[in-house]
Amino acid sequence: MAFELPVLSYDYNALEPHIDAKTMEIHHSKHHAGYTNNLNNAVKDTGLENKSIEEILKNISKYSVAVRNNGGGFYNHKLFWESMSPKGGGEPIGDLLGAINRDFGSFEKFKEIFNKAAATRFGSGWAWLVNQDGKLTVSSTPNQDNPLMDIADVKGTPILGLDVWEHAYYLKYQNRRPEYINAFWNVIDWGQVAKRFV
Ligand code: MN
Fold this sequence. Notes:
There is one protein chain. The longest helix has 23 residues, at 21-43. Helix 1 (21-43) packs antiparallel against helix 3 and helix 4 (94-104) crosses helix 5. The chain is 46% helix and 12% strand. Strands 2-1-3 form a three-stranded antiparallel sheet. It is built from eight helices and three strands, in the order H-H-H-H-H-E-E-E-H-H-H. With 198 residues, the chain is of the alpha+beta class. The structure holds manganese (II) ion. Manganese (II) ion binds at residues 27, 31, 77, 163, 165, 167-168.
Protein backbone atom coordinates (compact mmCIF):
# COMPACT_ATOMS: atom_id res chain seq x y z
CA MET A 1 0.00 0.00 0.00
CA ALA A 2 1.44 3.33 -1.09
CA PHE A 3 -0.42 5.53 1.39
CA GLU A 4 -1.31 4.75 5.00
CA LEU A 5 -3.96 6.19 7.26
CA PRO A 6 -2.04 8.23 9.85
CA VAL A 7 -2.44 7.37 13.52
CA LEU A 8 -3.73 10.29 15.59
CA SER A 9 -1.46 11.65 18.32
CA TYR A 10 -4.49 12.03 20.64
CA ASP A 11 -7.63 10.04 21.51
CA TYR A 12 -10.94 10.49 19.71
CA ASN A 13 -12.40 12.16 22.81
CA ALA A 14 -9.39 14.44 23.39
CA LEU A 15 -10.86 17.47 21.62
CA GLU A 16 -14.14 17.42 23.58
CA PRO A 17 -16.25 19.47 23.99
CA HIS A 18 -15.17 21.40 20.88
CA ILE A 19 -15.10 18.40 18.56
CA ASP A 20 -16.96 15.37 19.87
CA ALA A 21 -15.55 11.85 20.09
CA LYS A 22 -18.12 10.23 17.78
CA THR A 23 -17.43 12.73 15.01
CA MET A 24 -13.67 12.23 15.42
CA GLU A 25 -14.03 8.46 15.32
CA ILE A 26 -16.20 8.37 12.20
CA HIS A 27 -14.23 11.15 10.51
CA HIS A 28 -10.87 9.42 11.00
CA SER A 29 -11.73 5.70 10.89
CA LYS A 30 -14.35 5.90 8.13
CA HIS A 31 -13.95 9.07 6.05
CA HIS A 32 -10.17 9.47 6.14
CA ALA A 33 -9.71 5.70 5.88
CA GLY A 34 -11.99 5.75 2.83
CA TYR A 35 -10.00 8.47 1.07
CA THR A 36 -6.79 6.58 1.83
CA ASN A 37 -8.10 3.26 0.47
CA ASN A 38 -9.59 4.90 -2.60
CA LEU A 39 -6.35 6.79 -3.26
CA ASN A 40 -4.39 3.54 -3.10
CA ASN A 41 -6.83 1.97 -5.57
CA ALA A 42 -6.65 5.01 -7.86
CA VAL A 43 -2.83 5.10 -8.03
CA LYS A 44 -2.40 1.33 -8.37
CA ASP A 45 -0.23 0.46 -11.38
CA THR A 46 -0.11 4.10 -12.56
CA GLY A 47 3.46 4.90 -11.51
CA LEU A 48 2.14 7.37 -8.92
CA GLU A 49 2.64 4.88 -6.07
CA ASN A 50 6.23 6.01 -5.64
CA LYS A 51 5.57 9.74 -5.69
CA SER A 52 4.95 11.83 -2.58
CA ILE A 53 1.41 13.07 -2.06
CA GLU A 54 2.68 16.67 -2.36
CA GLU A 55 4.22 15.94 -5.76
CA ILE A 56 0.99 14.32 -6.96
CA LEU A 57 -1.13 17.26 -5.80
CA LYS A 58 1.16 19.84 -7.47
CA ASN A 59 0.49 18.15 -10.84
CA ILE A 60 -3.09 17.12 -10.15
CA SER A 61 -4.45 18.46 -13.46
CA LYS A 62 -2.66 15.53 -15.18
CA TYR A 63 -4.42 12.84 -13.16
CA SER A 64 -7.87 11.31 -12.74
CA VAL A 65 -10.77 12.76 -10.78
CA ALA A 66 -10.37 9.84 -8.36
CA VAL A 67 -6.75 10.82 -7.64
CA ARG A 68 -7.78 14.48 -7.22
CA ASN A 69 -10.64 13.75 -4.81
CA ASN A 70 -8.96 11.03 -2.77
CA GLY A 71 -5.44 12.45 -2.89
CA GLY A 72 -6.84 15.72 -1.62
CA GLY A 73 -8.87 13.91 1.03
CA PHE A 74 -5.84 11.93 2.16
CA TYR A 75 -3.57 14.99 2.45
CA ASN A 76 -6.14 17.46 3.82
CA HIS A 77 -7.25 15.27 6.72
CA LYS A 78 -3.66 14.48 7.73
CA LEU A 79 -2.95 18.20 7.89
CA PHE A 80 -6.22 18.78 9.77
CA TRP A 81 -5.49 16.21 12.52
CA GLU A 82 -1.97 17.55 12.91
CA SER A 83 -3.29 21.11 13.23
CA MET A 84 -5.25 20.28 16.37
CA SER A 85 -4.34 19.35 19.93
CA PRO A 86 -6.13 18.96 23.26
CA LYS A 87 -3.63 21.56 24.47
CA GLY A 88 -4.42 23.86 21.54
CA GLY A 89 -6.06 27.25 21.33
CA GLY A 90 -4.75 30.65 22.27
CA GLU A 91 -2.74 32.66 19.80
CA PRO A 92 0.35 32.07 17.69
CA ILE A 93 3.65 33.58 18.77
CA GLY A 94 6.95 34.58 17.20
CA ASP A 95 7.48 34.82 13.44
CA LEU A 96 4.06 33.39 12.63
CA LEU A 97 2.29 36.02 14.72
CA GLY A 98 4.50 38.68 13.13
CA ALA A 99 3.52 37.51 9.64
CA ILE A 100 -0.19 37.39 10.59
CA ASN A 101 -0.02 40.94 11.94
CA ARG A 102 1.86 42.11 8.84
CA ASP A 103 -0.44 40.44 6.29
CA PHE A 104 -3.86 40.73 7.98
CA GLY A 105 -3.43 43.70 10.34
CA SER A 106 -4.01 41.71 13.55
CA PHE A 107 -4.79 38.23 14.84
CA GLU A 108 -8.43 39.29 15.37
CA LYS A 109 -8.68 40.50 11.78
CA PHE A 110 -7.15 37.23 10.53
CA LYS A 111 -9.73 35.26 12.54
CA GLU A 112 -12.52 37.29 11.00
CA ILE A 113 -11.24 36.66 7.45
CA PHE A 114 -10.66 32.94 8.06
CA ASN A 115 -14.08 32.51 9.70
CA LYS A 116 -15.76 34.21 6.77
CA ALA A 117 -13.95 31.96 4.26
CA ALA A 118 -15.03 28.88 6.25
CA ALA A 119 -18.63 30.05 6.75
CA THR A 120 -19.24 31.14 3.15
CA ARG A 121 -17.74 28.12 1.37
CA PHE A 122 -20.88 26.85 -0.35
CA GLY A 123 -21.46 23.12 0.12
CA SER A 124 -18.44 21.00 1.02
CA GLY A 125 -14.87 22.19 1.21
CA TRP A 126 -12.07 23.69 3.25
CA ALA A 127 -10.79 27.01 4.56
CA TRP A 128 -7.02 27.57 4.50
CA LEU A 129 -4.25 29.71 5.84
CA VAL A 130 -1.78 29.68 2.95
CA ASN A 131 1.92 30.51 2.82
CA GLN A 132 2.83 32.11 -0.51
CA ASP A 133 6.63 32.38 -0.34
CA GLY A 134 6.51 33.98 3.09
CA LYS A 135 3.33 35.98 2.56
CA LEU A 136 0.18 34.71 4.27
CA THR A 137 -3.26 34.66 2.73
CA VAL A 138 -6.63 33.00 3.40
CA SER A 139 -8.53 30.98 0.81
CA SER A 140 -11.15 28.30 0.53
CA THR A 141 -11.49 25.37 -1.85
CA PRO A 142 -14.42 23.13 -2.87
CA ASN A 143 -14.59 19.40 -2.20
CA GLN A 144 -11.14 17.98 -1.35
CA ASP A 145 -9.13 20.46 -3.41
CA ASN A 146 -6.32 22.38 -1.71
CA PRO A 147 -3.83 25.19 -2.38
CA LEU A 148 -1.02 22.82 -3.39
CA MET A 149 -3.01 21.77 -6.46
CA ASP A 150 -2.12 23.33 -9.79
CA ILE A 151 -5.85 23.87 -10.41
CA ALA A 152 -6.38 25.93 -7.22
CA ASP A 153 -7.50 29.57 -7.58
CA VAL A 154 -5.13 30.54 -4.73
CA LYS A 155 -1.89 28.54 -4.82
CA GLY A 156 0.64 28.10 -2.05
CA THR A 157 1.46 25.87 0.90
CA PRO A 158 -1.42 25.28 3.31
CA ILE A 159 -0.28 25.68 6.93
CA LEU A 160 -3.71 25.49 8.59
CA GLY A 161 -6.90 23.93 7.24
CA LEU A 162 -10.46 23.64 8.49
CA ASP A 163 -12.76 20.95 7.12
CA VAL A 164 -16.23 22.41 6.60
CA TRP A 165 -17.83 19.32 5.09
CA GLU A 166 -21.01 18.49 7.03
CA HIS A 167 -19.42 15.18 8.12
CA ALA A 168 -16.93 17.27 10.14
CA TYR A 169 -19.57 18.81 12.42
CA TYR A 170 -23.12 17.63 11.78
CA LEU A 171 -23.46 15.14 14.67
CA LYS A 172 -22.75 17.84 17.26
CA TYR A 173 -23.58 21.12 15.54
CA GLN A 174 -26.17 20.06 12.88
CA ASN A 175 -26.67 23.09 10.60
CA ARG A 176 -24.76 25.48 12.88
CA ARG A 177 -21.49 25.62 10.95
CA PRO A 178 -20.46 28.99 12.52
CA GLU A 179 -20.52 27.41 16.02
CA TYR A 180 -18.20 24.65 14.83
CA ILE A 181 -15.90 27.22 13.22
CA ASN A 182 -15.74 29.18 16.48
CA ALA A 183 -15.01 25.99 18.45
CA PHE A 184 -12.07 25.15 16.14
CA TRP A 185 -10.07 28.10 17.54
CA ASN A 186 -9.95 26.32 20.93
CA VAL A 187 -8.07 23.32 19.55
CA ILE A 188 -5.65 24.80 16.98
CA ASP A 189 -2.08 23.68 17.67
CA TRP A 190 -0.21 26.91 16.84
CA GLY A 191 3.13 25.22 17.43
CA GLN A 192 2.45 22.85 14.53
CA VAL A 193 1.19 25.67 12.32
CA ALA A 194 4.36 27.65 13.07
CA LYS A 195 6.53 24.62 12.18
CA ARG A 196 4.79 24.40 8.82
CA PHE A 197 5.27 28.15 8.28
CA VAL A 198 9.05 27.99 8.77
MN1 MN B 1 -13.53 15.48 6.36
